[in-house]
Design a protein that fits this description.
The chain is 65% helix and 0% strand. The protein is mostly helical. It has a single domain, classed as AhpD-like, CATH 1.20.1290.10.
Length: 162
């Protein structure tokens, strides 16, 4: 019996590789997020962690991100995101708070993001940055959900119940 799949958004591409060209295109999109000019890789990681927290996905929360320098984000910033207390924690700029608030709203209900939340991101990142953030959050959320489904399917096929 083979070992159950246990991918996260970080290493999902290995599990999807058998899909060929579409999987390769998805992998290229993923790689491009981490070098885009609008949102730093560290802030994008904090968005990923925000979504993982909202999904209550322990595997995702524990996945190290190779797109970041070691120790990034710092322990205090990571803890604030995981605790859902960015808004009342020092060490975040106004732009970072706006992006992380947007990510949280997106994760709770992408159709009901308050205009003032979107406007705060637009004021910090510009319209192109807001569009990038929306696309990046969609990709992050989709990868987290896909990885979770594959983990669940792998456990089910192996007869392991969560």
């Amino acid at each position: 019996m083979s070992e159950p799949l246990s991918p996260t958004s970080i290493d999902l591409d290995r599990a999807l590789a058998a899909a060929g060209t579409p999987a390769a295109s998805f992998a290229r999109l993923w790689q491009s997020l981490w070098v885009a000019p609008y949102v730093s890789a560290e802030l994008l990681e904090l968005c990923r962690l925000t979504l993982a927290r909202l999904h209550r996905d322990a595997a995702e929360l524990g996945a190290p991100n190779p797109h970041l320098d070691a120790g990034t984000p710092g322990a205090a910033r990571r803890a604030a995101v995981l605790g859902g207390i960015v808004h009342r924690t020092d060490g975040f700029s106004g732009a970072e708070r706006a992006v992380l608030q947007f990510a949280e709203c997106y994760g709770l209900d992408a159709q009901r993001i308050p205009d003032e939340t979107a406007d705060a991101v637009k004021a910090s990142l510009g319209e192109a940055g807001l569009v990038f953030l929306i696309e990046a959050l969609g990709c992050l959320d989709g990868r987290i959900r896909t990885a979770r489904c594959l983990r669940d399917l792998g456990r089910s096929a192996a007869g392991v119940h969560a």
